[in-house]
Design brief:
Elements: H1 6-11, E1 16-19, E2 31-35, E3 38-41, H2 43-62, E4 67-70, H3 74-87, E5 90-92, H4 104-123, H5 131-148, E6 160-163, H6 170-178, E7 183-187, E8 198-201, H7 207-238, H8 241-256
Parallel strand pairs: 4-5, 4-6, 6-7, 7-8
Antiparallel strand pairs: 1-3, 2-3
Helix pairs in contact: 2-7, 3-7, 4-5
């Protein structure tokens, strides 16, 4: 599992909270001090919380569970998209799709439509249409790709969700809670850390802070996936086809070794 360094957390600016007047009372558990009207986050608690999250996420990857990254704010979009892509994680960074978790079957229809349109575009099915219709179809595909591009392979609701800013993504938090989906999130001093399952107290506005935490989570998920895939391969190798084939004659020999029942002696004529 990846190491979490207090020095790196500090350099990433994870310790800067919001202005004192904007604090949430329940955030007091991880506030270290106030300096020049700004709350300072206790990075020792950030480190501990992030390490717990990484252990949990590694297990998700190892067992092949789906993880969804959500980060639609300007500072998070690029970072979240790149980190998710690097580890094979699903992501929504354009906007939160209402009902994505609570009404996934309906949302899934749009995802299937996008996949179908991409296939038709690639195999030349649209060549039969006039140019203006093809242009319209391409425009619609690009629009849907911006929204659903990071979840086109997601078969159902994810096993867990990682959110950068729970105030910004309040709808995602509500839906995840309704579906009992574990929430991992960066929680700043203006939010309620008890509203999520795995809170990581840190600055949720600075790109450096978002990047550090997001890349750590993505990295450990990717490592977990590799361990899980390696374990499956080793399991297959242990049961060789030759072992199964060789087992058959042994059973046959055992059957042949059974003594035959003696019949009644024939009467002499």
């Amino acid at each position: 599992m990846q190491n979490v360094s207090l020095k790196e957390l500090l350099e990433a600016g994870c310790h800067f909270g919001h202005k004192v007047e904007r604090w949430h009372p329940k955030a007091a558990t991880f506030i270290y001090a106030a300096k020049e009207g700004v709350h300072i986050i206790d990075l020792a608690k950030t480190k501990s919380a992030l390490e717990s999250v990484l252990a949990y996420v590694e297990e998700l990857g190892k067992t092949g569970k789906a993880l969804l990254f959500v980060g639609t704010k300007r500072q998070a979009k690029g970072v979240v998209t790149e980190a998710a892509k690097s580890a094979g994680i699903f992501y929504l960074t354009n906007r939160w799709v209402g009902g994505f978790l609570t009404n996934h079957e309906e949302v899934k229809k749009n995802i299937e439509k996008l996949n179908r349109m991409k296939k038709e575009s690639a195999d030349g099915s649209w060549n039969q249409f006039p140019k203006h219709e093809r242009v319209q179809l391409e425009k619609e595909t690009r629009k849907m790709e911006r929204i659903y591009g990071g979840v086109t392979a997601l078969m159902g609701v994810p096993s867990a969700i990682y959110i950068v800013d729970i105030k910004k993504e309040a709808s995602a938090v509500r839906e995840a809670k309704r579906k009992n989906i574990p929430i991992i999130a960066i929680v700043d001093t203006n939010t309620d850390p008890t509203s999520v399952d795995y809170p990581v107290p840190a600055n949720d506005d600075a790109v450096g802070s978002i990047k550090y935490i997001t890349e750590k989570i993505a990295g450990v998920y990717g490592e977990g996936r590799k361990m899980g895939e390696k374990g499956k391969e080793e399991g297959v190798e242990k049961t060789k086809p030759s072992d199964v084939i060789n087992a058959v004659p042994e059973e046959k020999e055992k059957v042949e070794e059974k003594p035959k029942k003696k019949g009644r002696p024939k009467k002499k004529v």
